[in-house]
Write a structure and sequence with these properties.
Elements lengths: L1 H5 L8 H11 L6 H10 L27 E8 L8 E8 L5 E7 L4 H14 L5 E4 L15 H5 L8 H9 L2 E4 L7 H21 L4 H19 L25 E6 L14 E7 L8 E8 L1
Parallel strand pairs: 1-4, 4-5
Antiparallel strand pairs: 1-2, 2-3, 6-8, 7-8
């Protein structure tokens, strides 16, 4: 066990994670206390740092699964190559169950779309989601409206993500501090310790491989760490059969035909374009452009 802990595959694992890996990959079952004693007596230290943390009041969990989903992204050197990538994640506030993970090069709208796609297709439509104040979720102009403008009914245009949440009937709640969505912040601490080790053991070194790996990993993680909800009645709503999720979790733009019955739109080569239009009855017919990732 000491030799295994010092090996390249396991040296980054903390003691508790190493105990789990021994049973899973080496067919060795041992109590945590016994393992800790063996490793410590042989000069092996756990790489996880136990820093004194500020104490924050923890908000009580929501009673029902699907009542509130916290979403966020975490940049980290997940592959141990010195290069950082972002994992987008969603965690259920009631159970602590990871509902979805999706890795991209940087934090982006598509990463959150794919994470929410996993939530909706595997569990259903949640009642609300808790986000930070990134411009992906809300317009920077939202905080600039005066009281007079708000009373007059003036509003700020939704972001593409905000528009998609309205179409799904999901309430968005913007957090005012990282501590407010502490459940997912603590999840990142756990995953940053565990996932690089899991990736190394599984030989995963690319974004594509990581996203395929998450499907089985979430099942294993949730079996170990998720808790039972206070109320067993699930708050997730089933996605209606007539709704195509691809036509919601996408980019939608509106254009109006000019006098020559044409419109212009700049599009990158990395995206496909599906044009959904009304029948042309006059020169001001509207075209709705739906952009999906290739």
């Amino acid at each position: 066990m000491v030799a295994l802990k010092k090996s390249d595959s396991y040296q980054s694992a903390n003691f508790m994670h190493f105990q789990e890996l021994l049973e899973e990959h080496e067919n060795i079952t041992i109590s945590y206390n016994a393992l800790h004693t063996i490793l410590s007596s042989n000069g092996v230290k756990s790489p996880k740092k136990h820093r004194k943390k500020k104490v924050h009041h923890r908000r009580k969990r929501k009673a029902k699964e699907g009542q509130l989903i916290q979403i966020d992204a975490s940049p980290h050197d997940w592959f141990g190559t010195g290069e950082k990538y972002d994992i987008h994640g969603a965690i259920d506030d009631s159970t602590g169950k990871i509902m979805g993970l999706y890795m991209t090069k940087n934090e982006c709208r598509q990463g959150y779309f794919e994470t929410l796609r996993s939530v909706v297709l595997n569990y259903g439509i949640p009642v609300s989601i808790y986000t930070d104040r990134h411009t992906i979720f809300r317009s920077p102009k939202a905080d600039k409206l005066t009281i007079e403008e708000q009373l007059a009914g003036k509003t700020v245009k939704d972001t593409q993500f905000g528009r998609a949440m309205k179409e799904l009937g999901i309430t968005m709640i913007p957090a005012r501090s990282p501590q407010a969505k502490g459940r997912i912040e603590r999840l990142w601490d756990t995953l940053q310790s565990r996932l690089p080790v899991e990736f190394k053991i599984a030989g995963i070194s690319t974004i594509e491989q990581a996203n395929e790996f998450f499907a089985d990993y979430l099942i294993k993680f949730n079996e170990k760490f998720a808790v039972a909800p206070e109320d067993t009645i699930c708050a997730f709503r089933t996605l209606p059969e007539e709704i195509c999720i691809d036509n919601i979790l996408c980019v939608k733009e509106e254009r109006i035909l000019d006098n020559g019955l044409t419109f212009s739109f700049i599009i990158s080569a990395s995206r496909s374009l599906l044009i959904v239009c009304q029948s042309i009855q006059n020169r001001k017919s509207k075209f709705f452009l739906v952009l999906n990732s290739v």
